[in-house]
Amino acid sequence: MRIGGIVNVNSNHWVAVIVDLWSSTVLYGDSLGGSDGDVVAALSWWAGFHMGRQFSQAALPIGIQTNTISCGLFAKVGLMHEPETSRDIQLLFTKNLMAPSILLK
Question: What is the pTM of this model?
Fold first, then answer.
């Protein structure tokens, strides 16, 4: 199973993440090309705590934005076009409808 979502970083930027429970990997995609160790560490801890094993980090392929406003769109498109999971994506909305979570089967 893969669990994906869009995470807010520094209250001004959205990134895509996928926790792959089969391969014990946290994938992180940032349309500005950055990385956030805190997000990956938190997701790795959460998954590792519940699955009883260590999780590694890998890059999630995502387009690079050329402006300062389209990061949320790039994050969503990055999740929806991830080759191994794009077949079975379900959007699960949180209380904040601007931040959907995605369950990837």
Answer: 0.78
List, for residues 39-53, the tens digit of each pLDDT value. 999 999 999 999 999
Q: What tens digit of pLDDT does each residue of 50-61 get? A: 999 999 999 999
Domain boundary assignment for the chain: 2-104
Secondary structure of 20-85 as H, E, C letters: ECCCCEEEEECCCCCCCHHHHHHHHHHHHHHHCCCCEEEECCCCCCCCCCCHHHHHHHHHHCCCCC
Positive or negative, the CA dihedral 56, 61, 66, 72 is negative
Residues in the chain: 105
Architecture of domain 2-104: 3-Layer(aba) Sandwich (3.40)
